[in-house]
């Protein structure tokens, strides 16, 4: 089975993988990712072994160059500089979020410039209503359902970053594909956008891959290990 493709800058909406095949047949083994507290904006709190993040009270933290100081963002510990990689992000019922990848060389100080030209590839939800791909120009995504689990597939050499509605493990629905010439180390990024605070504020979660959701992918050969961020 082949990965669904699209023209550059065009959303992939309403397409589904053929029901007779596993939608995960083309995917590498899902990545087990953890969030990097060194990069976390001071409003962000981590839980469950650094796999869950939500907005909390401002915390005084060191202002190291790896930490976001204006945008409510956090990166994963692991980055990618080659190969094919798949991971999922549970955005749940949050009304504001963005997920995707970022070049490791992008500055974390000041407001994050969200565009491929600046080394950032994101899709997101605004005010619980508008789905967007942060391309140039920005693209509104006409989704008819509200996904709570986003699948992200990076093919580094092919220059493609694809997003899927992964709520149903048996039927991945394509959302959008970026096409680019990637260079250097890329890191998965989570942007909580707007501080939805409080004990009942929905977190964003990097789920642990399970056999029940990824029976074929988990039995495949894992992708080569990438170096951890220094």
TrEMBL record:
Question: Residues in domain B30.2/SPRY?
Answer: 12-211
* Coiled-coil intervals, chain numbering: none
Q: Which PROSITE patterns match?
A: B302_SPRY
Q: Which InterPro entries match?
A: B30.2/SPRY, B30.2/SPRY_sf, Butyrophylin_SPRY, ConA-like_dom_sf, PRY, SPRY_dom, TRIM/RBCC
Where do the record's region annotations for Disordered lie?
1-20
Q: Which domain of life is it from?
A: Eukaryota
Q: What is the protein name stated in its UniProt record?
A: B30.2/SPRY domain-containing protein
Natural source organism: Strigops habroptila
Read off the lineage from the record. Answer: Eukaryota, Metazoa, Chordata, Craniata, Vertebrata
